[in-house]
Every structure is written in structure tokens, then in C-alpha cells.
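Ticket #4471: structure export looks truncated?
Reporter: QA, pipeline team
Priority: medium

Steps to reproduce: submit the single chain below to the structure queue and open the exported record.
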Amino acid sequence: MPTDWRDFLDQAIDDRFSQLVAIRRHLHAHPELSGQERDTSLYLYQLLSDLHFDVRMGPEGCGLIVDDRSKPAVSRVAIRADIDALHIHDAKQVDYRSQNEGVMHACGHDAHTATVFGAITALKALQASGELPWDVSFRGIFQPAEETCAGATSMIQAGALEDVSSLIAVHMDPTRRVGHVGFRAGVLTANCDEMEIVISGRGGHAARPHEASDPIAAAAQLVNALYLFIPRVTDSQDAVVVTIGKIDGGDHANVIPERVTLRGTIRTLDQVVRRKTMEHISRIASSVAQTSETKINVQFGLGCKSVVNDAKVVQILRLAARDVLEPAGVEEIPRPSMGSEDFAFYLEQVPGAMIRLGSTSDRVGGSGLHTPTFDIDEESLRIGARILARSVVYLADPDRERRLEENQASGVW
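Actual output as written to the record:
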């Protein structure tokens, strides 16, 4: 029989595990793109309302802010999940394969959602039975539009961080096996800026290119120049990734078009390097425009800053993971990822941290994020929910600072 609040918490999550799997599979089979997550939000709203949470819908019916019904809280610990999917064809042959052709949960957002659902429902059960060791007030944030870097900002504007003292999250990691979790204090992910490059030329007949100013030829030169020269003007010890992900131009094989549009991203870890890279791109574009007799306009759009994990919150998450996992499963992340996360917007306002949750096993998983065969071992849902729920309790501990100092002094960290 359980004898400690942690045992009761684990039992509550185990009791709900089959439901977590069912929720994850339902979401995987019914994915919705960024900004269109209304059915997903309504599905979660109904589940959580039935469990007597206070639930507020996000802007335009996308996303949820979910509170326990404790006495009015001046300090809540929040857990964030993301609920949007990607424009990717689901190539898996499983019962929960996407039923929305060309749309797929290929980044684990369905699993993040199920994991947070498990954590907050287990906490609520212990809160109701009086088995938590101290007062704990918590919030679940189920945000839309992470993939477009718009969801966090909209949820903040809707009040997601009101009365929140700290914020935590997990991200599925197919490079780690189930039972292993990665931790990193400080910079976790890269700055990510979108760019749009419009190349305007003079159209003409494919047989007479000398009478035109070919924007396709200029686009080819520009992409090659960016990939060749950006690394050559950047210190080799500074991380920079420039990628063109979309090229749009032309309608006919025998017509030189008047315009080509390129869209891509810039990823950096340092603000000075970020600014210099944008300057280099603009200078290279100007040179290509001159040699190709075209006009090239470069615009840098909405970007995500780096996720910067708060060191003390990481300590708490690590402490929770040590309760749940074997010692070898608690791993340090040696360097930041060049991926990006709009979780960064929350951390500009409250201390928090994100951890990488191993999701691969011999049975399932192994395909990378944003791939058509991405899948997870669902045992990771149980592990993630246990770590998150424990972390909420530890973060709410009125004597937290002393406990952290004791653990640090004893060499646990």
C-alpha cells in the first residue's frame, strides 16, 4: 500500500495510464494545424470540465488555461503543453495513424498534452484526498500554434501567466531511450528568425534568357551563396544555421517568371551573432541582385528567442527525476539544440525550464522529430507525468530554498 505522497502520486498516474494512452492516440489520429486547434481544444475542455477543473478557452477557441479549484492562489506552478500538429504525411501503419491527410503530430505535441493531463489530474486527486504534503496550487497551459511561434504570446495575453510563480514542460526526445531524461541549465535552444526573400526580375521566353532578368537563376545563386559564405564569415566557434525551406516561382516550363520567393530560417545562439548574420545575408543578397540585374528584398519576421532554463527550476526537475528514474537515466545535455521553442516567450516573464524526455525503445520510436514515421513508446507518458507532478509539489514547497541548499551541499547536484 502507498505510504508516502510520492507513492500515492505514482499510483494515481498508474490508475490513469490507459486514459493517457487513449488521449494521446485520439489526438494523434485527429491532428490540427497551428491556429486551427478548435476540435482539440473542445475535446480537452470537455474532459477537464468533467473532472471539475476551472477551464478557460484560449483566443478564438484554441488552447486552454486549466486551474485547480483550490482557494484563491497568489502563486501557482504551471505546466505547459502544446497541441498543434504539422503539415506532414503520416506514414505509419498503426491504428492511431492520422485521419487528417497531410497533417500529423510529428513533434510529440499529442504526447506532451497527454503527459500534462496525467500530471494535473493526479495532482487534483491527491489534493482532493488531502494526501499532498503542503498547499499546492497549479495550472495546466495547453497552448496552440507552437510551430508558428504565435501560441505562447497569445496565451500570455489571455492571462496564462497571471499568478504563476514558475513554469515547467517536457519535450519528447527520440534520441533518448525511455527511462532517460536530459537536463540543461541556461541556454537550451537557439534563437530562430524567419526570413522571406523576394527576387523580382524581368520575365521572358525560355528560349531567350538574354532578354530577361531571370529571378530563378538569381535564386539559385543566392541560395548557393548563403550556404557557402555565411559559414565563411562566421567564427567557427559560433553556431549559425541558415536554411531555405521553401522556393516558390514560375508557372510554366517555357516561361521565365518575374518573381521568385524564398522562405527560410536563421538559427543562432548569440544575439550579436544573430544581428551580424542578418547583416551578412542582406549584403550577400545585394551583391547577387547587382550581378543578376534583379531586385532582391530581404525581410526578417517573427522569431523565437532562446529557451533559457532557470538553474533552480532545473534543480527541482532533476530532484523529481531522481525519484522516478535510475541514476543513469538522469542525463546532462552537453550543448544547446539548434531547434527552437516558443516556450522561450514564457521564460522571459517567469522562471521555468524544459526537459528532454526519452521516448524511444526497442519496440517503437527512433524516427526523428518532424518525420513521417515519428512515434513514441507510450511508457514515456507515465514517466513524464510522474516527473512533472512531483516537480509541481517540490516547486510549491514553502521550504524549497532550504531543501535545495541541503541537496546541493550534499553533492546531489
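Status: closed, not a bug. The export was complete when the record was re-opened. Leaving a note from the reviewer for reference: The mean pLDDT is 95.
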